[in-house]
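Thread: MarR family winged helix-turn-helix transcriptional regulator, structure

OP (GT): Posting the sequence first so everyone is looking at the same thing. Length is 153 residues per the record. Can we get the structure tokens written out before standup tomorrow? I want them in the notebook alongside the other entries.
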Amino acid sequence: MTVEPRTEAGDVLTDVIMRTFRLYGAFLDAAEVMTKPVGLTAAWWQVLGAVLKDPLPVSGIAREMSLTRQSVQRTADLLVEKGLAEYLPNPAHRRAKLFRPTEAGHKAIESLRAAQHNFTNRVSAQVDLNDLKTTLKVMTQLIKAVDDNPPHA
């Protein structure tokens, strides 16, 4: 494999990646604190959150969340076992059932709203709104760029 020369943009992106890892860890820690009182975990919240509007097959959730299908499957099965979600027939695919929250699952997510809003309001109050909007726009662009340019093995 040929080693391309370093660029300033590449170095900045490397720093963005490292900060993203740190931020992801902090968000997961916060999610664990918020979910514990309602009997959820951060992973359960993440999987249920992916299907609050529309049911998806496990593979669709995995793609949307950039998780492995196997880890989403384990979490989905646990959520079904706990009565927080259910599988439905999928008219588009006989074997890949659709996954969605039950009423209990929706209630569990709803019970997180106050803690979530309190947390996000406190954190976002320390960052300029326009900077947050720019961050969201750039993150969306980076997701597309990474999807369009997977790393070489």
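GT: Both are above now. Quick notes for whoever picks this up: The mean pLDDT is 94. The radius of gyration is 18 Å.
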